[in-house]
Amino acid sequence: MSNPTATSATRRRFELSSLPPMAKRYIDDATVRYKKSPPVVKFCVWFFMLVYVAVGAMFLVIGPKVIGQTVYDLAHSIAKLRFGWLILISIIAVTSFPPLIGWSTTITLCGFAYGPKGWFVAAAGAMIGAAVSFIVLRVAFYARIKAWSQSNKKWAALETVIRARGLPLIILIRLSPIPPWVYSNLLFASIETVTFSQFMVANIFYCAKLFIHVWVGSRIAVFSDGTQRDEMDTTAKIINGLSILAGMLVAVAAGWITWHLTEKEIRNTPGASAEDGDYATGALEDAEADIQAPLIRSLSPERYRDNSMDDPNNNDLERGANKAGAKRSRPSA
Predict the structure, then answer these.
(1) Residues 6 or more apart from 142 whose CB is under 8 A from it?
(2) In this predicted structure, what is the pLDDT of residue 244?
(3) Strand, helix or coil for residue 184
């Protein structure tokens, strides 16, 4: 008779081994970080999980039509206000700070409220939010981020690669879906080799990408409003549905292409070893979880022992970082 515990463990290992390497590593790292996290972090994890479960349950109980109509009515109520656009810009700017949520939803809401013209509102909010978050995070948390990044070999590799590649790589990383917008702001603020002007130029390129999200939002709004939906014939509904699907596919394809171009540029950096490339890409893949560390957890050597620059196998990376200028003075925002 087989042992149920052993069978369960074997099944779990098989299921994890069948996942893509990046997904498996993310699950393993997330599990380790959760176990090491203090109670306040664990509370936040469970809180956000409950929020997502509650939202999912609300869709099932209330129904997507009612929720869609409510969002549509809310968006148009904001659009009718004299300074409704300022409300949306403010929300976008505030939710640009990690670990706040709602940034993507508000971008889509711009499409609900103003149609394709909502891109101007979304772009303005994104630029303001990015600029303010970069300055605040770099100034307010400079000491903690610097102490953490200097002891993290992945971050040292990423800084070295960005220093070598410059603005083109910064733009690619900004356009890449990994890490997400909110944590990308924190990522760039934590890398001393990224200047404020370079960061803002990269944001200008990103604003073009926002049009896809706003466009999809404007098309979903047509389906969300019961009056417009009832007036549409079958052909119009199919065309609108296909336009939404096309917008989503374009966004996914653009994200996939951008990420692979970013990874290729990092690995082909002149003077960087293959190990440096692995560490740098790993820093981007794990940024959403790693970069929060200096903000919400104490910097104890034990907690970051796996990323320590004292690793004897990391001498090449350390020498590379020193050659590129590991000793840097405090930058201005």
Answers:
(1) 330
(2) 83
(3) helix
Rounded Cα–Cα distance for residues 74 and 252 (Å): 28
Alpha-carbon distance of 284 to 190, in angstroms, equals 12
CA torsion, points 92, 98, 104, 105, in degrees to nearest 10? Answer: -80
What contacts 162, CB < 8 A, 6 or more positions away?
169, 170, 173, 191, 193, 194
Question: In percent, how much of the chain has pLDDT > 70?
Answer: 71
Q: At 25, is the pLDDT very low, low, confident or very high (cuts 50, 70, 90)?
A: low
Per residue in 123-132, pLDDT tens?
A: 999 999 999 9
The conformation of residue 18, written as its DSSP 8-state character, comes to T
For 76, 91, 282, 288, the CA distances from 104, given in Å and listed in that order, are 18, 11, 24, 16
Token pair, residue 96, equals: 């640009």
Rounded Cα gap, residues 125 and 85, in angstroms: 9
DSSP state of 231: H
Report how far residue 87's alpha carbon sits from residue 83's, in angstroms, rounded to the nearest whole number. Answer: 7
Q: What is the helix (H) or strand (E) element at residue 222, kind and residue range?
A: helix 196-224
How many residues would you count in the chain?
333
Q: How far apart are CA 304 and CA 287, in angstroms?
A: 14
| DSSP per residue, 165-179 | H-HHHHHHHHHSSSS
Q: What is the pLDDT of residues 292-326, one digit of tens each?
A: 555 554 433 344 344 444 444 444 444 444 444 44
- 311 CB contacts (<8 Å, ≥6 apart)? 153
- Can you give the pLDDT at residue 301? 38
